[in-house]
Amino acid sequence: MKLGHTIDNLVDALKRLPGIGPRSAQRIAFHLLQHDRDAALRLGESLLIAARTIGQCQRCNTLTEQAICATCSSAKRDAQLLCVVESPADQLVIEQSLAYGGLYFVLMGRLSPLDGIGPREIQMERLLARVADQIVREVIVATSFTPEGDATAHYVTQLVRERDPQLKVTRLARGVPAGAELEYTDVNTVAQAMLDRRAD
Ligand SMILES: [Zn+2]
């Protein structure tokens, strides 16, 4: 059955979402059009507004509507601590663990040479400039415990130490299971791993 250009476009757009295959994309498209036009309109409008208004924080890279995000501009955060994470989702799980009160630097990725993601893509120069600001005293590397997360952690640790040997560099403790993505790890485990963090 030919669905028509407009529905095809919708299904194609849905297929690009993570974890959504062709069948699911079709199911979602039909569901929205057949049963829930309100949800379809709300989804469309929210996406449009979010995609147009949400940018990245000029200090930490996280997603925000402001030039500087609420965390970076908060006077309550401990500016001596800088936690390096791969993504805003990882940052969120650390925030939810309530075990951390410092600032962040979000790499927006992790080293993955096969995918063409190198030091430039994860903004190493900006990170190194940031840790040299004379305010940061400890850099906490909180990348995932996956092979790529480990490689990224190793690289970040090495370069930060080269830039400033006085800085303390720690990594989340190994309480987080090997192979685990931080964003899918439960918050209690993340809290413990933060408290038990140590120098590599
Ligand atoms: Zn920020």
Task: Summarize the structure in words.
By secondary structure, the chain is α/β, with parallel strands linked by helices. The protein folds into two domains: 5-53, RecR Domain 1 (Helicase, Ruva Protein, domain 3), CATH 1.10.8.420; 63-199, Dna Topoisomerase Vi A Subunit, Chain: A, domain 2. It is built from eight helices and seven strands; from the N terminus they run H-H-H-E-E-H-E-H-E-H-E-H-E-H-E. It has helices at 5-15, 22-35, 37-53, 70-73, 88-97, 124-131, 147-163, 187-195, and strands spanning 55-56, 63-64, 78-85, 102-106, 138-141, 168-171, 198-199. Strands 4-3-5-6-7 form a five-stranded mixed beta sheet. Helix 7 (147-163) links the parallel strand 5 (138-141) and strand 6 (168-171). The radius of gyration is 20 Å and the shape is elongated. The model has no long low-confidence stretch (mean pLDDT 93). Zinc ion binds at residues 57, 59-60, 62, 68-69, 71-72.
